Amino acid sequence: MDIRFEDVPKMRVVGIRHIGPYHEIGVAFDKLVSWAGPAGVFGPTTKVIGVYHDNPDEVPAEQLRSDACVTVGSDFNAPEGMTDTEIAGGNYAIGTHVGHYRGLGDAWYHLMDKWLPESGKQLRRPEGAFFEVYVDDCRTTPEEQVRTDLYVPIV
Prior knowledge:
- By secondary structure, the chain is of the alpha+beta class.
- The chain is built from two helices and eight strands, in the order ββαββββαββ.
- It has helices at 26-36, 104-119, and strands at residues 3-8, 11-19, 48-52, 65-71, 83-87, 90-98, 130-134, 147-153.
- It is globular.
- The mean pLDDT is 94.
């Protein structure tokens, strides 16, 4: 996986909270997309993002917290019951996974357990978020070509 570095601007996101194994967040994304499409949220600059709050090596799978999100403008009024938060801007290491979403766990392992310790970079905590940006629409892109960018906050 090639790693690039970017200074990412802060992003306001609204979404649906998922509690449980990260690989089961698809249910929350289905609900999010079912709401966002008819609500007119999607535009040319809208990003679909998964935000992951806990380290799965430290938190039991059934307690992991994640959010299925879309980016929105500062004047957007989030519906009741949805998360409404800001992803901190700053420096991020970004790796791109190409392929089916079931390979994301291995991609994160490579990024966090292989690349990071050898990179000399330090995690930017607590204000940095770990998140994925879903570059391609998995409903219209062949699964072997689907791109997902993995963001790791660094100093």
